[in-house]
């Protein structure tokens, strides 16, 4: 669990002053907790002893232990491919890379599924299946491939699906067409892209519902998202793994497809006719029987 998770889990048990402190910490998380204990207290408008009591109530040994966890999280979210590779290489077991990857991916899948609530999944599926809403999809430098995958399938399943171009200078043109109630799907994993946070905030101000695919530490976009999928992504590599994120994406595609299968099947039949008319795909040649 992240420090943010711990705060949320204990929030109901906190005193009024502690809740005020917790809200301050979450408002600009994790940066708001990285100052001195006096600065953290002043920013939240509480006393220094309140800070000390709350971090112990959250299960930390003291404020230094609390800050160490925050620094560790921040370091993880800012890790470059080189530093990630070095960290894994230093502790790599002697087993084959296939086994190491399989172990990491299965662990990621277990941890992710333990945190994904069915109500959250069903809510995201309902948003994407609602034909009255237009869908906009965008991914980052690496996650653009996942955004493209989701777009390709949803475009077949239902109308009014748009993939946003990767050039941020063109984004205002897409936002111009967004209406209150539309859905913006954002893929944003660590090292989070500043432009994604800006796009999410502007879209939310227009009443757009945001579905976010992020990592276990959570992109800043999570603060404005209606539905958040926090996927575990670490692997024995310089690169983060997309396997579990793709798992969630494919499950969502099936859920959306099944919810309106009659309309989807009609669209698929029409699309197949267009493929045949354009001769896009090769068709098997009929076998020619030999002469008797």
Automatic annotation (TrEMBL):
Top-rank taxon: Bacteria
The protein's name in its UniProt record: MurR/RpiR family transcriptional regulator
Organism: Shinella lacus
UniProt keywords, alphabetically: DNA-binding, Transcription, Transcription regulation
Residues in HTH rpiR-type domain copies: 1-77
Secretion signal span: none
Keyword check for Glycoprotein: no
Taxonomic lineage: Bacteria, Pseudomonadati, Pseudomonadota, Alphaproteobacteria, Hyphomicrobiales
Gene3D superfamilies linked: Glucose-6-phosphate isomerase like protein, domain 1, Winged helix-like DNA-binding domain superfamily/Winged helix DNA-binding domain
């Amino acid at each position: 669990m992240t420090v943010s998770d711990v705060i949320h889990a204990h929030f109901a048990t906190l005193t009024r002053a502690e809740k005020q402190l917790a809200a301050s910490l979450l408002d600009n998380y994790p940066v708001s907790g990285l100052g001195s204990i006096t600065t953290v207290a002043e920013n939240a408008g509480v006393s220094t002893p309140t800070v000390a009591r709350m971090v112990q109530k959250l299960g930390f040994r003291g404020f230094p232990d609390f800050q160490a966890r925050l620094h560790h999280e921040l370091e993880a979210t800012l890790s470059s491919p080189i530093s990630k590779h070095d960290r894994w290489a230093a502790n790599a077991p002697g087993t084959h890379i296939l086994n190491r990857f399989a172990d990491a991916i299965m662990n990621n899948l277990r941890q992710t599924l333990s945190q994904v609530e069915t109500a959250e999944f069903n809510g995201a599926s309902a948003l994407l299946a609602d034909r009255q809403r237009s869908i906009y999809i965008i991914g980052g430098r690496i996650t653009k491939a996942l955004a493209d995958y989701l777009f390709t399938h949803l475009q077949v399943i239902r109308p009014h699906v748009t993939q946003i171009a990767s050039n941020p200078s063109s984004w205002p043109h897409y936002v111009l067409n967004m209406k209150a109630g539309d859905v913006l799907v954002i893929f944003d994993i660590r090292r989070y892209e500043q432009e994604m946070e800006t796009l999410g905030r502007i879209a939310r101000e227009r009443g757009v519902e945001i579905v976010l695919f992020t990592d276990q530490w959570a992109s800043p976009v999570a603060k404005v998202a209606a539905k958040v999928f926090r996927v575990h992504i670490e692997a024995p590599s310089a690169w983060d793994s997309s396997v579990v994120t793709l798992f969630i994406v494919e499950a969502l595609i099936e859920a959306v497809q099944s919810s309106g299968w009659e309309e989807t099947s009609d669209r698929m039949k029409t699309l197949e006719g267009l493929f045949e008319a354009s001769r896009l795909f090769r068709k098997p040649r009929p076998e020619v029987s030999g002469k008797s």
